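User: Can you help me understand a structure? I only have the sequence.
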Amino acid sequence: DEYGVELTEEHLEGVRAIANGEGEVRKNDFICHIKQSNMFGMFERTDPESDLHWQNLAITAFKLFDKNYDGYIDKKEFKWMTANKRVSQRKVDVMFQRCDLDGDG
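Assistant: Let's start by predicting it. Here is the structure, written out as tokens:
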């Protein structure tokens, strides 16, 4: 409930059913399960004012930029995501000069 999602015992049982012997659930199995059980819609209706909602949006946005999954967004990745006429290479360079505090790109 603190995340704006109300799970029933039936939902919990469904997830327990796909767990392995140690009680762990693989990410792909979990995603398939929530799609097949129509639980996906529940997660779309989370409280948009919650910290969790904004944290998830930030994490998702970061992952979209971090194309090589190294935990950093370099100039090439950033330019790829902003590849349009509204964001020039000069603007990307200025943004990195201001934000890249250690200068490693």
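Now, to help you interpret it: Helices lie at 9-17, 27-36, 40-44, 51-65, 75-81, 89-99. The mean pLDDT is 77. Let me know which part you'd like to focus on.
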